[in-house]
Design goal:
This protein is an alpha+beta fold and about 80 residues long. The protein has helices at about 1-15, 65-75, and strands at about 20-25, 35-40, 45-50, 55-60.
């Protein structure tokens, strides 16, 4: 009986945990770098020109759907 109670608590804890959306890094032909970091709280896109510093380019709502949309958007702009 204790095992069932413990399994029930673990299942509830896993359901309450928000899913992580994802993180990725990309680079274009000119050597510019891009980082996309998404959590359930929000997505941040940072870019770095060759030899430059990282700066925030875009911030959106979080979630895996927004992460996938950002990856598709920047792949369309030539980032790999």
């Amino acid at each position: 009986m204790k095992h069932f109670a413990m399994l029930g608590l673990i299942a509830i804890a896993l359901m309450a945990t928000p899913a992580m959306a994802g993180n990725t890094g990309m680079k274009d032909a000119a050597g510019n770098k891009l980082r996309i970091g998404c959590k359930s709280a929000g997505c941040t896109v940072q870019a770095k020109a060759k030899g430059g510093k990282w700066k925030t380019v875009e911030q959106t709502e979080g979630g895996s759907d927004n992460f996938k949309a950002l990856v598709t958007k920047y792949k369309g702009q030539g980032y790999k």
